[in-house]
């Protein structure tokens, strides 16, 4: 499954969280996610303290556990999403 994770840093947390994140190595970042999550991409709006990432995983538990590692610093939402091909396939199943 593919998940869209979005966040809004809590007031006053931008600089401390950015300082912490900037010190993480790629290996440490992957270790935080765990072996059951593949990062597709992550984008940050540093000025507003918001961002999104797309991950793939067969385990909602793994995605939830990852989000919980950061939720003391930010408001986080996790949503399952589908790509265009899946949306079209599902749309074809609709009887209009």
Overview of the structural elements:
- By secondary structure, the chain is α+β, with helices and mostly antiparallel strands.
- It has one domain (2-92): Dimeric alpha+beta barrel (Alpha-Beta Plaits, 2-Layer Sandwich).
- The protein contains four helices and four strands.
- The chain has helices at residues 14-23, 26-33, 60-68, 84-92; strands at residues 2-9, 38-45, 50-56, 74-81.
- The protein has a four-stranded antiparallel sheet, with helices on one face.
- It is globular.
- It starts with a strand and ends with a helix.
- The mean pLDDT is 96.
CATH topology: Alpha-Beta Plaits
CATH architecture: 2-Layer Sandwich
Silhouette: globular
Low-confidence stretches: none
Total of domains: 1
What is the CA-CA span between the terminal residues?
A: 27 Å
| Strand arrangement across the biggest beta sheet | 2-3-1-4
Q: Secondary-structure element order, as H and E? A: EHHEEHEH
Q: Helicity, in percent? A: 25-40%
Rounded mean pLDDT score: 96
CATH superfamily: Dimeric alpha+beta barrel
- List how many beta strands DSSP finds: 4
CATH class: Alpha Beta
User: What structural class is derived from the secondary structure elements?
Assistant: alpha+beta
> Helical stretch count?
4
Radius of gyration over alpha carbons? 15 Å
Pfam families: DUF3303
InterPro entries: DUF3303
Protein name: DUF3303 domain-containing protein
Organism: Photobacterium gaetbulicola Gung47
């Amino acid at each position: 499954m593919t998940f869209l994770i979005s966040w809004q840093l809590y007031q006053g947390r931008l600089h401390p969280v950015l300082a912490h994140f900037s010190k993480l190595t790629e290996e440490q970042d992957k270790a935080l996610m765990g072996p059951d999550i593949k990062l597709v991409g992550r984008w940050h709006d540093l000025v507003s303290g918001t961002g999104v990432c797309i991950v793939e995983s067969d385990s909602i538990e793994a995605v939830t556990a990852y989000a919980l590692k950061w939720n003391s610093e930010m408001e986080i939402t996790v949503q399952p999403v589908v790509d265009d091909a899946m949306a079209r396939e599902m749309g074809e199943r609709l009887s209009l």
